[in-house]
Amino acid sequence: MTVEDAVHYLARLRLRRAGGSASVHQPIVLLWAAVRAAAGEPRLVRWDSVRTDLSKAIVAQLDGDSREASAAYPVLALKASPLWDLEAAHQAPPAHGSGAARWLNDHNPQFGLSASTYALLATDADALDRFALAAVDKLDGTRAQQVLNAFGITVARPADSLPPPPVVGQAFPGRRAIAAVWGGNFQGGMATFPREAERVVNIFSDDNGPYPDRRVPGSGRIEYVGQGQEGPQKLSAQGNALMEWTRAEGKAARYWHRPVDGPFTFEHWVTIVGRHREWQRDRNNQWRIVYVYDLAPVGSPHPEEWPIDVAAEVASRSIDDTVPAAPPDTTALDAPTRGDLYRNLTARATARSGRPAGVRTATEYARSAAAREAVILRASGSCENPACTGMPCDVRPDGTALLEVDHVEDLARGGPDEPVNMIALCPNCHAAKTRGANRAALRSRLRVVARRAHAAALEDAQ
Ligand SMILES: [Zn+2]
After folding, report:
1. 64 neighbors 40 (Cβ within 8 angstroms)
2. How many angstroms does the Cα of residue 386 sit away from the middle of ligand 1?
3. Helix (H) or strand (E) holding 292
4. d(CA 393, ligand 1 centre) in Å
5. Which tens digit of pLDDT belongs to each residue from 102-119?
6. CA of 382 to the centre of ligand 1 (A)
7. What separation in Å is there between the alpha carbon of 450 and the centre of ligand 1?
8. Pair 269, 255: CB distance under 8 Å
9. Predicted TM-score (pTM) of this structure
C-alpha cells in the first residue's frame, strides 16, 4: 500500500452523521491505530484490552457527551476497508446496530490496521502526517484540528491549501460545483463545508423545489422551512441541528439562492431571528408539522455590525414551538386538494421552456421532478399495474411507498417526460415491464392505464 492508496481509501470511508456534521468515530480509531504503527506497537489488539481507552478518546471529542461513546461502531464500520483488519469480520453484525458491542464483547476479536497499511505507517515518517490529515478531512476544520491534537499530531492542516471562503455574490452552476470547491454533500438544504477552517452553516434555497422559501413582503426576511420532506420534522435531523447550532450560538449563516433557471449564488449573510412551527403538507400530501426558521439578512457575519433590532432579536433566542392543535381544515377553500396538487404538478411538468431540444436545463430537471411527484401522488401508494401480483402496497422502512416511476414510452423513443406517459410501479412490475418476456404486451396495457389514471386524476375534485 502506498500513501496515495491509503489516502484514496480514507476518502472513500462513509462517515455517519451526528449532530449535523461528520462523526469523529472512524477518524479517531484510525488515528489511534496509525499512531500505534508509527510507534512500533503491535498491529493487532484484542477488543477487551482497548475498548475503554477508545471510548474515552471518542467521548473526549464529543465534548463529554457519552451517549455515542462506544468504540464498537467504528471498529466494525471499518471492516470493509482495505485499511482495516478485523478477526472473523464476516460474522460481524451491522456496525450501527445494538448487536455490535455485544458481538465484540462475546467474541473479543483482534483488530487493527491491515498489514500493508501498518507497514506503510511503521516505515515512512511522512506517511503518518498525510494519513492523519486525510483521516480527518471530512470533519469540520476546528474538530479536525482537535482530533489531530488529541493524538499529538502537530502537523497543521495546511491553511494555504484550503480554498478561500466564498464571497457574497459568488455564483456556481449548481451544488456539485460548490461541493467541488469546499467539499461536503450537495443535497439537503443546509451544509457546512469540510474544506473550511471555521464552522459556518450554509443555507441553500432552491426555487426548483421541493419547497421554495417564502420572502416576507416588505421586510427582506425569509421564512425557511427546516429539513425533512416527510412526516413531522425533527430538530435532530442533520440540517436542523445545524440551524439550531447557528441560532443558539447567535452566528451568521450564508444564504445561497437559486432562481428557477439560474445559478446558485451566495446572496448574503443571514442570521436566525426566530423559529416557529406550522402545519404543512409533506411530499406525500399528508399534513405534518414543520419548523420554520425566520432569517434576517445581515451585511456581515460579525454580530457587532448588525442592526441593533436584529441583534436584539437574535439575543432573545426567540422560539415559538406552539402549533395549532389540528391541521387546518382540509375542506377549506384555500387548502389544496389532491386534484389541485395533481393539476398543479402536471402544469409544472408540461410547461414549455422554449429551449432547443437536447439542452437539459435546471427548468427541465424541475419539470421532470414535478412529473414524478405527480405520478407518485396519483398512485396513492400502490402499484398502478392493475394486474400486479407482487406486493403492490409495500413500503420502505420510513413508511413511504416502495414505488418506481417509469416512462411507458421511453424518452429515447420520443415519449414525453410528462405524467400522462409515466407510471408508478412496484419493483416487481417495473422489472417485468423492463426485462420480462411479456414486456411488449405489458407496455401497451400500461399505456392505456397511465392515460386513464392521468385523466381521472385531472378530474379529481378531492
Ligand atoms: Zn406491481
Report:
1. no
2. 8
3. strand 287-298
4. 8
5. 999 999 999 999 999 999
6. 8
7. 14
8. yes
9. 0.48
